[in-house]
């Protein structure tokens, strides 16, 4: 387990509270940890035209790239669930992992720095950690275009 897993999970939970999820009601937050210690967090953003919705991981990757980050990705924490009456995100018993599109986006960001980040799925009482390369084996990336 990475040393900052609990703090990164909390950043993902906090981001999930900011999600715009009026259609699914499923709030997701993602927090990206970089080698310099910086954390970039974001939430999912739904759209009435469902295909235009953005996952939390994609939002966080775009935010990081917009801040000029190219590589150095060490870990990603993802927390998701429905909200209760008080507006708090209630995590599920099973951890949330990135969808295929987000795995590809995270791979691209990681490949720019030659890292294989740990993906931390956050559930109510546990974390699941797995290398991004295990979630997306034989990934297509910048090196394939050389």
Q: Can you describe what's shown?
A:
The termini are far apart. This protein is α+β, with helices and mostly antiparallel strands and 146 residues long. The chain has one domain (5-145): Cytidine Deaminase, domain 2. The radius of gyration is 14 Å and the shape is globular. Helices cover 27% and strands 26% of the residues. The mean pLDDT is 95. Helix 2 packs parallel to helix 3 (100-111). The chain has helices spanning 5-16, 56-66, 100-111, 132-135; strands spanning 26-34, 39-43, 73-83, 89-91, 118-122, 127-131. It is built from 4 helices and 6 strands. Strands 1, 2, 3, 4, 5 and 6 form a 6-stranded mixed sheet that branches.
Summary tags:
Cytidine Deaminase, domain 2; six-stranded mixed sheet; 27% helix; 146 residues; alpha+beta; 4 helices
CATH class reads Alpha Beta
Overall average pLDDT: 95
**Poorly predicted ranges:** none
The tally of domains stands at 1
What string, H for helix and E for strand, traces the elements in order?
HEEHEEHEEH
Q: Which architecture name does CATH use?
A: 3-Layer(aba) Sandwich
Radius of gyration: 14 Å
Class per helix and strand makeup: alpha+beta
Report the major sheet: 6 strands, mixed
Number of helices: 4
How far is the N terminus from the C terminus?
34 Å
Subunit organisation of the chains: single chain
Helix content: 25-40%
* General shape: globular
Beta content:
25-35%
* CATH superfamily membership: Cytidine Deaminase, domain 2
CATH topology: Cytidine Deaminase, domain 2
């Amino acid at each position: 387990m990475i040393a900052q897993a609990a703090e990164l999970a909390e950043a993902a939970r906090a981001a999930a509270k900011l999600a715009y999820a009026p259609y699914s009601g499923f709030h997701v937050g993602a927090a990206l940890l970089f080698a310099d210690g910086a954390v970039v967090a974001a939430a999912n953003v739904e759209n009435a035209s469902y295909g235009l919705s953005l996952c939390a991981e994609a939002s966080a990757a775009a935010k990081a790239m917009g801040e000029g980050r190219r590589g150095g990705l060490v870990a990603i924490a993802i927390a998701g669930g429905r909200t209760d009456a008080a507006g708090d995100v209630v995590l599920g018993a099973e951890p949330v992992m990135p969808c295929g599109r987000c795995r590809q986006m995270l791979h691209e960001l990681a490949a720019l720095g030659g890292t294989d980040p740990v993906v931390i799925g956050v559930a109510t009482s546990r974390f699941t950690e797995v290398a991004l390369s295990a979630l997306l084996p034989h990934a297509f990336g910048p090196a394939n275009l050389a």
